[in-house]
TrEMBL record:
<comment type="function">
    <text>Catalyzes the oxidative deamination and cyclization of 2-amino-3,7-dideoxy-D-threo-hept-6-ulosonic acid (ADH) to yield 3-dehydroquinate (DHQ), which is fed into the canonical shikimic pathway of aromatic amino acid biosynthesis.</text>
</comment>
<comment type="similarity">
    <text>Belongs to the archaeal-type DHQ synthase family.</text>
</comment>
<dbReference type="InterPro" id="IPR056179">
    <property type="entry name" value="DHQS_C"/>
</dbReference>
<keyword id="KW-0520">NAD</keyword>
<dbReference type="GO" id="GO:0051287">
    <property type="term" value="F:NAD binding"/>
</dbReference>
<dbReference type="GO" id="GO:0003856">
    <property type="term" value="F:3-dehydroquinate synthase activity"/>
</dbReference>
<protein>
    <recommendedName>
        <fullName>3-dehydroquinate synthase</fullName>
        <ecNumber>1.4.1.24</ecNumber>
    </recommendedName>
</protein>
<keyword id="KW-0057">Aromatic amino acid biosynthesis</keyword>
<feature type="domain" description="3-dehydroquinate synthase N-terminal">
    <location>
        <begin position="3"/>
        <end position="187"/>
    </location>
</feature>
<dbReference type="Pfam" id="PF01959">
    <property type="entry name" value="DHQS"/>
</dbReference>
<dbReference type="InterPro" id="IPR030960">
    <property type="entry name" value="DHQS/DOIS_N"/>
</dbReference>
<dbReference type="GO" id="GO:0008652">
    <property type="term" value="P:amino acid biosynthetic process"/>
</dbReference>
<feature type="domain" description="3-dehydroquinate synthase C-terminal">
    <location>
        <begin position="202"/>
        <end position="376"/>
    </location>
</feature>
<keyword id="KW-0560">Oxidoreductase</keyword>
<keyword id="KW-0028">Amino-acid biosynthesis</keyword>
<dbReference type="Pfam" id="PF26558">
    <property type="entry name" value="DHQS_2nd"/>
</dbReference>
<dbReference type="GO" id="GO:0009073">
    <property type="term" value="P:aromatic amino acid family biosynthetic process"/>
</dbReference>
Amino acid sequence: MQNKFAWISTPDELWDDKKEMITTALESGIDYVLDFDDIEEIRKLGNVKIIANTDDADIYLVGINGEGDGFVELNDDFTDSIDIANAKKAKSEGKTVCAYIKITDKAHEQLAVRLGSIVDYIILIGTDWTIIPLENIIADLQKLDVKIIAAVRDVDGARVALETLEHGTDGIIFEANDFNNIKKIAQNVIEASQVKYELKLATVTKVKPLGSGDRVCVDTTDMMKPGEGMLIGSYSKSMFLVHSESLESEYVASRPFRVNAGPVQAYVMVPGNKTRYLSELVAGDEILIVNTEGETRTAYVGRSKIERRPLLLLEAKYEGKTIRTLLQNAETIRIVDENNNPLSVADVKPGDKVKVYIETNARHFGIAIDETIIEQ
């Protein structure tokens, strides 16, 4: 599942009131703003992307024939040829283009699908909104390289849009006219982006101390709780849940923002069901935090620290399949046992059951594909 996102349209308010709403949205993680009147002022508030029908917008909006109801809307007498021509012209000029369509009948549905093959984003709003038009458009556009955005009014509308047909829309847009509504919708978008991985129990078969190698500590911008860590392994198809350093130790203070992850060649799961090599991670990269139930959230790498340390080999089996990873040989490095408890690599032994993730597909450049690849 890809990360979902939210955009806001600005309310028809005086600038000081509008500014407060936009600031709240930015603080909630929403940094795309649809506005026509105060673009220069909005840019001063932060690193914001502007959606508008002007050449200085970051995303150029087409399909505009007036305003109303807090959103741009189309008049009943618009013609699809004009909107498609405008979209094609904007794309030919190198613009990132978003089409805006008010769905009032089947013809508008069909126009949305046609525009979806041209533009980068498409905003949908329904006058008498039901689930069926949204389902139809999602189904028709799913295989195209276009992001579908539903215009919603509240948290319930956002939830329906983001969950329709399991896949849901890629994002939502709403009028930023209420502080609590902004925060609740932003949180709902975060929750809709969360992926759950089905963790299995593998049986440890070997624990072997090795010599030294370059290992990576991943310091994140989030504080992790006991029970949270990252999926890491020597093989891209099978990973161990490596626990964060969120526990106190008699040797070192806790570092709840850190996972002592493993050697430079190991894989780590990142958002979008993709993997990265630990050696590739740099400040600002997205990383996936995973708990003992396989629930996830996205964080950012604040620092990736590579140091030479003694390693050990950890080997386990699941349904006859052998999986391996290397970890630093230190008491503070932990995996997770069958009871969801952190288990130090200093204490792990053959026969212990530990939590792992097994991928059924192979991976090519970190992306899961239907192909046979042998990793050993």
